[in-house]
Amino acid sequence: MADYREMWSQLGLDLELHDQLCAALPPLFEGAFLHQKDRPSGMDYFNMVIAEVHGLRIKELVDHKRNGGFVAGSFCVYVPEELVMALGGVMVGLCAGSQFWVPEGEKVLPRNLCPLIKAALGAKLSKTCPYFQSVDLVIAENTCDGKKKAWEEMGRLVPTHVMDLPNRKSPEGLALWRAEVRRLVSRLEGISGRKLTYDSLLSAIDKVEAKRQALRELYETRKADPVPISGIDALVASQIAFYDDPDRFTAMTAQLAQECAQRVQGGIGVFPKGTKRILLTGSPIVVPNWKVHHVIETTGAVVVVEENCTGTRYFTGSVDRSPRDLDGLLDALADRYIRDINCACFSPNDGRADDVVRLAREYKVDGVVDVTLSFCSTYQVEQGSLQRRMKAEGIPFLALETDYAPGDEGQMRTRIEAFLESL
Ligand code: BJ8
């Protein structure tokens, strides 16, 4: 990797602490990925992106800002990245998936909060995340209670705009969300000094749609048996979608999808035909959290689809491009997010169980594993209704709870082994 220390120092990183974080990533990545056999060659690009995660992409963000652009960060798939792009910004998902940041987050947040929220605050407080150090604005959202309150702390550390998400998918909820989308536009226009236009929004919608389409094509190939790509490789591609350059990501993912489609035609798989197929659902699995996929795929099964925000929820549905004016297009954009994404923060949220059943059939899975992060109460409460629905549909179901700390892999492996034996 090139020497980026000067850039990191200018971004205000705590270099000593950051060195410790950087030292932890390569062994984690090697342990989770590089032991795999017969990976598609298209994964070389994604390996490189992970190797350069604090280097090349950060340099691109710094250059973008030098050229007058801005960078926004988010933690949720409800935040419409199209608006940031349409106003000349770059959107990055702030990963918050590492145990490294949790103790720092616990200095200002209660311990009994989900690790994703604690890691988010910890990453900012510890000054070890160059993405966080690059953002001009965090676009947060009122989804779960933990996030909602944590944004008050976040707002003391970095400019933060909180979008108010409705609790219900009702006409009133949609009206609130459409207004929130417009409030975000005003905030971004203020930052960028630009005015949102119909053409700039349409072109951003097309760019994001192309990215989502490439992921859909990749996921489509995972319906095959033998499956042409491991779950953990597909997961890392999905995780990278949140911060890579969108055009490059689209091109590289489309190429990977094409290679996987050819593998399917040739009957080439990464696991033998007939390997038990798992649908994973639950809380988001953000970079560099690869624990559950790794355990499942080294226990004799393969993850073939993820119904979560680092899986199908990210690319589900499309924005209706038919409106001919900016107002209509903004409504269409707002509608896609509320209509198509089924998060447990909504009540009721039957759409998620419908999605799990549909995907379980489409991907011909043998079982569903519902993975919740510790203290993620919305998804944990929803586990009961999801389990009842799976039982009614005759789909085997396993509930797992985990966090970012190492140490529970052994116990998880035992439970997964028992589940696989029961299938
Ligand atoms: S759309 S899942 S990304 S809110 S922070 S809910 S893990 S307790 S992230 Fe989410 Fe948007 Fe919904 Fe998806 Fe649980 Fe933690 Fe809350 Fe979390």
Automatic annotation (TrEMBL):
<dbReference type="Pfam" id="PF06050">
    <property type="entry name" value="HGD-D"/>
</dbReference>
<keyword id="KW-0175">Coiled coil</keyword>
<protein>
    <submittedName>
        <fullName>2-hydroxyglutaryl-CoA dehydratase D-component</fullName>
    </submittedName>
</protein>
<dbReference type="InterPro" id="IPR010327">
    <property type="entry name" value="FldB/FldC_alpha/beta"/>
</dbReference>
<dbReference type="InterPro" id="IPR047678">
    <property type="entry name" value="YjiM-like"/>
</dbReference>
<comment type="similarity">
    <text>Belongs to the FldB/FldC dehydratase alpha/beta subunit family.</text>
</comment>
<feature type="coiled-coil region">
    <location>
        <begin position="198"/>
        <end position="225"/>
    </location>
</feature>
